[in-house]
């Protein structure tokens, strides 16, 4: 269901739009892009994922899965990014009219692979947390799947799991590339839509990893086009820390030299 009953009753008293989000969260990015495209003002509540603020008891009363983003609109709580952008698009006739459920569902399904690949090819650049920090996360967070994911990451993802995620991602990109092969400007047709917004952060994230977009020329042209939009710059790029982006670039280059970057998986260089 798009709306859920909040565990924190004070949320019902909030007026206007309130967004709990993180700068580099791809799901947060798509929500901020919709807000920028529609010109809707919102109260920003930043969640520092590096400090595990999403594992706090207070935040998990807002988002029971302990993830970002979460949106409150005049007391109504919505916690899934696709549901959030659909909700926000209702206030904009152009975006609401061009929503394509199958493309939104496809983008939503891609998130698990995006998360795994992000952790493997970007976040592994950072040193592991001290044991007491990792243990505190396991003790405080209520999301069993996320806790297991963190344990798997600490132990090292096996190659088959990474290979599968890369192959599924490439298959999805091939699908999008085929859609764009008819000369359309945007994923759903002639007009910019929620489908474009849902996929923009994913393409950006994979670009940080050095994804070989030359193999999908129509998709690359689309990404070059949508990344020039003011909303991409203000709602995605402007929230990123330059130091973090530079660290990602250095780590990607290092793994490229070692032959262990994302291009060495999933047959991307075949």
TrEMBL record:
Q: Start and end of every GST C-terminal domain? A: 105-248
Q: What Gene3D superfamilies does this protein map onto?
A: 1.20.1050.10, Glutaredoxin
Matches recorded under PANTHER family: GLUTATHIONE S-TRANSFERASE GSTA (PTHR44051:SF8), GLUTATHIONE S-TRANSFERASE-RELATED (PTHR44051)
A UniProt-annotated Pfam family: GST_N_2
InterPro entries, per this entry? Glutathione-S-Trfase_C-like (IPR010987), Glutathione-S-Trfase_C_sf (IPR036282), Glutathione_S-Trfase (IPR040079), Glutathione_S-Trfase_N (IPR004045), Thioredoxin-like_sf (IPR036249)
Q: What name has this protein been given in UniProt?
A: Glutathione S-transferase
Name all GST N-terminal domain ranges.
15-96
